[in-house]
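User: Sequence recovery, please. Input:
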């Protein structure tokens, strides 16, 4: 699995003309567990995320989870779950993914068939290199209703419209009351304020401004 080893070393590897079976085999071997893969009709991209990327992804996820806990919103976090469908010849892993509206349908299922089961209600991409816009058509093909993009400075929310295109939105359909400006402000403190302190401050903010 020399290709996967290249990706693990931090290189971005892109292959063309890759059969579906090869993608599945590469995705499923243990050596590839830390490699993110995007497959689009024969084109396979592999990369191992940086520390900054993972810190941002994890913190944004924790902020969502803190919000859902404080407001008693049932969610299921599927993190970087592999989303793949042979009939679409596509596969990808979001940096975070959540079931919110469809949480009652999937929370007891440990395995999903996305040709039958609903896709995540929300996918999140930490985009430190401007690659998210290439992934949007894949998310749209799966019917992911909402996509967030964080580029290290700005948090953007996109919603899938009736034409199958993502358009920017001022708020989240999954979490309509979530203050995106406050989330973005906290995300901007990564590296300056410790993670648990950021989460505690967000919970305090919620209790003072939202749930009191």
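Assistant: Recovered sequence (212 residues):
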């Amino acid at each position: 699995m020399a290709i996967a080893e290249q990706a693990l070393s931090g290189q971005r590897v892109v292959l063309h003309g890759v059969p579906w079976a090869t993608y599945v085999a590469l995705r499923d071997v243990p050596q590839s567990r830390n490699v993110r893969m995007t497959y689009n009709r024969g084109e396979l991209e592999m990369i191992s995320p940086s520390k900054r990327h993972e810190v941002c992804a994890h913190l944004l996820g924790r902020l969502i989870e803190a919000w859902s806990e404080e407001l008693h919103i049932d969610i299921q976090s599927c993190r970087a779950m592999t989303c793949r469908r042979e009939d679409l010849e596509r596969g990808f892993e979001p940096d975070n993914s959540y079931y919110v509206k469809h949480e009652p349908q999937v929370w007891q299922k440990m395995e999903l068939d996305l040709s039958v089961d609903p896709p995540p209600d929300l996918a999140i991409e930490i985009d430190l290199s401007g690659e998210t816009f290439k992934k949007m058509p894949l998310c749209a093909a799966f019917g992911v209703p909402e996509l967030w993009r964080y580029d290290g400075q700005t948090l953007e929310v996109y919603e899938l419209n009736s034409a199958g295109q993502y358009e920017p939105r001022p708020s989240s359909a999954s979490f309509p009351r979530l203050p995106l400006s406050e989330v973005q402000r906290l995300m901007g403190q990564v590296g300056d304020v410790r993670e648990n302190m950021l989460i505690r401050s967000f919970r305090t903010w919620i209790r003072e401004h939202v749930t009191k």
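The first helix runs from residue 2 to 8.
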